[in-house]
Batch of 3 targets.
Target 1
Amino acid sequence: MSESAEMTTENPKVERRKAARELRDAMPAAFRLEASLSICQKIVAMASFGLCDTVFCYSPVGSEVDVRPIIAEAFRRGKRVALPVCDYETCKMEFYEIADGELLCENGPMRIPEPTPDPARRLTPNAGTLLLVPGLLFDRRGRRIGYGKGMYDRYIRRFPDFLRGSTAVGVTYHALFSDTPIPYTDQDVNLALVVTERGLQFTRKIEKSPKWEVRHRRYVPLVDKDGNPAEPRKREFYDAHYVSPDEGKYQPPRAKDLDE
């Protein structure tokens, strides 16, 4: 459905979609750049980003939050990265793995850069997948207004673990994180976590919190003054990865006293 046709319906999202797009487009380019960098820094600092093995990202267009630094950091850490390929006739999308530096082709009415839809490179999400969800507007219940095609809503509903946890992350500027509730239908989804330049916004209680997202411990050997591994004294020492309280949910593990 075209935007002009949509305007003739009684869809309550239409005016808010239009206002959100105008507000985002009116933001100074320097502000959008600074806010995008801040959002990217917050996402790559999340425990769920550090411990995931695959990032489902998106290709930013126009005034959207630029998440390309997240893609670059994912490749630097050896993670797999996938981008969506959209079918504008069926309003469906699939994610396909990309290589670092791969050339993308612009597709659809918005000219969104997409990878080649090679069936051998199509990925489906698993417990180690982090999905970044763009949107024109989010509210404090995690509800979202996109561009009106409902592709992300359909995709997320195919994989219910995204609905029960916080591995589907909304991405937006704080000015577009609304206190006014967004109209909601049975076809829409709401996300447990939205990230803006001001921080992580948990919108509801997480029903399913994967262990790898909360805390993952790995052995950290002691080192001597020259930086060489040394024998542990009486205990094994661990480095804990967790979602910190100021990010919204968990208390850090208690520090252990070291024996002299």
Note: The first helix runs from residue 3 to 7.
Target 2
Amino acid sequence: MKQKKNASMPAYMKIAAILREQIFDGTLVPGDILPSESFLCEQHQVSRDTIRKSLGQLEHENLIYSRPKVGYFVSNPRHSEYLLDFPEDTESYTSKFKDVHAIYPDEKLKDALQIDGTHKVIEMSQIIYDGETPVAWDVKYIPYSRAYPSVETEMNYAVFPGPVSMKVAPYDYYTELAISAVTADEKIAELLLCQTGDPLLLIQRVYIKRDGQRLSYALRYLAQSDQYGSLTGVSDFRSRKYFNDKP
């Protein structure tokens, strides 16, 4: 988002914008050391605290990093790291609840949920449709507890639950995601009306509380589709919002 030039903008933001632009236009390149705090203070006629706030802002954006007793250096851009946007659902698609039952976990589930083989898991699945065409198969695994989820409730109301219990605060968990290419086995081919061996995209997600507890494990098998299940992403996502800014 482009910032308007504003005389009331804090001095530290103006200085950060000047240094940021020098990094973006190549005046300063990865590995370069920035001018000293003393030099920047004299150049911009501001206090050392103001300069430190400017440098702290750029460090927060991962544009620079510090070496104690040496100074600040320009970071290498993180073009291999992406912020992904993976929409769960859209109103134009429908879903059909397929099955729910309790199982004992296999080795893969025990590893994903970090449980032992005696701990039951609720397995739920649904098929996503684009009109009449099945485009995805979702499978979700949640460690069984008497409080949530209830097998009977899920079977009675055919509700495909969210990734975590409503008792978990929205900021109390994070998600690990893995994307891979697989081929359809006989079961998936039958569900998605494709051929055995057809290529699919598999998206695996593990939902984890801050204390390390594994809340659920979700698999989504995506058939070839023009729109559903598309992922978009951008690299250097922390600093990209400043690309159009000028000091």
Note: The radius of gyration is 25 Å.
Target 3
Amino acid sequence: MIVILIVSALILSLFCATALNKQYAAVLLVILASSQMAPQSHNVILAILFTAAIHFFHTFLSAKQKNYFWLISLLPIIYIFTIFLIQPYKLDIYYYLGYVAAIFIFAWAALIKWDIEKIVRFLTAYGLYLILTGFLEKALTDNLRVGSSLTVATAYAVVLVTGWSIWMINAFTHKIYSIKIILFGTFLVFLAIIFSGTRMGLIGLFMGLGLFGLSAVLMRKKNMNIIRIAAYSVSIIALLAFLSVMIWKLMPNDLYIKRTFSTLIEGKLDRSNMGRVQIWIVALDVIEKNKQFGIGAGNFPNKCRQFFSSMGIDEKFGINTHAHNIYLIMLSEHGIAGFAILMAFALFCILNLFLYFLKNRSSPVFYAFLTGFIIMATLGLVDATPMYLPTAGFAAWFFGVCASFRSEKETC
């Protein structure tokens, strides 16, 4: 049934792009399909790769400006080509085909001319999809943690809170939605994160609110000195801290997220925390022994088993597909070479957005995507986004939009 829905979304995406010229709807449908990418879902990955490639070439042939994004796109392509050429480890080809699909989505999104309204409409549709599927999952299954629309709860919460922060800043400052709608949308996101049981999602929500407040101040008072910025920052943090305490008191004690958060606040290691600590130890050991190219995507579980077996550690504490830390994932799976290329790719996209900001200081796009990047990078300390295949499509869209903005001054 899931495969049928994915194929239907991909076919509809092709129709939207080629027949209706609705590129934004087409991107959304491909990203919805990519949320079910997994190494064992070979046909799904191939279908998404094929569709994303068709979209890219169709857009590339009709785009007026084609050259500016080559440097960004070629960085990961050259890396993947080099890995296939030298094969420094056993390759799980479907991981890399999933990454190639994400590169095509990125390049396609980078060729599209995005504006604030289109970004907000895209995120409204995507956010509603995540929220509604989360609520439906909770109602039908009563799982302690929801998030099957992105296969796992942590990925679900991180993508949701990242998209929400971009949506909120753009929608508020550009007056696309009223304050009531933005508050209602924020409340729905809060409930969805509570249902996901993801502690870092809750932290990301308050980070988004704080960065939103600071962004609103900076956009209105562009020549503010560092002292006043610091004063506003402290005030915003104090207000959020007060609101956090009040909300925390009102939340029922039997909520899963409150019980696990209480354990974290008390400085105790629960099953989840202990599993992460052990996996981080494995990742550090892998990095030490495989500095240059790492061990390759998909090979981490076997390394975990070998390490735990050699140390006599009970495996039930967290054999998993990744190191639960985006930086350790990149270093352990792709080594220093892959880490440098992937970081250069991300920073180049953010730099491109910054160059746009220098010519268009009244636009909220820079503040919105920088906020999303900060949240994603911070939550990456305990999460795999965007190196987790089901989140790769959203991350590709995120960086593609950053790369799509030109540094020229826009005319009103």
Note: DSSP finds 16 helices and no strands in the chain.
